[in-house]
Amino acid sequence: LGDVYKRQGGVFIPCPVCRSGKLMRLYQETEATCVSLYCRKCKHESLIDIQAGDGLDRVTLHRPAQAGKQH
């Protein structure tokens, strides 16, 4: 998924498309399936899977990012 910003009390996942922002904070025990990440800056949505642990390989892009709605 790329860069993950480490901060006290967990790690932050940036947008997998534009790499900006901190969309979600993960803790070592966090695990989930098909979590939606929406970036307000680039208007893309991505689905990710998260396994418990503390390595960068625990976050997997489940579905490629899709373009958001254009007004």
Any overview of this molecule?
The chain has 71 residues and is an all-beta fold. The protein is built from no helices and 6 strands. The protein has strands at residues 5-7, 10-13, 24-26, 32-38, 44-50, 59-67. It has a 3-stranded antiparallel sheet, with no helix packed on it. Strands 4-5-6 form a 3-stranded antiparallel sheet, with no helix packed on it. Strand 5 and strand 6 (59-67) form a beta hairpin. The model has no long low-confidence stretch (mean pLDDT 77).
Shape, principal axes of CA atoms: globular
Counting DSSP H or I runs of 4 or more residues, the number of helices is: 0
Which structural category fits the helices and strands? mainly beta
Instruction: Kindly state the percentage of residues in helix.
Output: under 10%
Largest sheet: 3 strands, antiparallel
Provide a brief overview of the structure.
This protein has 71 residues and is mainly β. Helix content is 0%, strand content 46%. The chain is built from no helices and 6 strands.
Keywords:
6 strands, 71 residues, mainly beta, globular, three-stranded antiparallel β-sheet
How are the SSEs placed, and which strands pair?
Blueprint: E1 5-7, E2 10-13, E3 24-26, E4 32-38, E5 44-50, E6 59-67
Antiparallel strand pairs: 1-2, 2-3, 4-5, 5-6
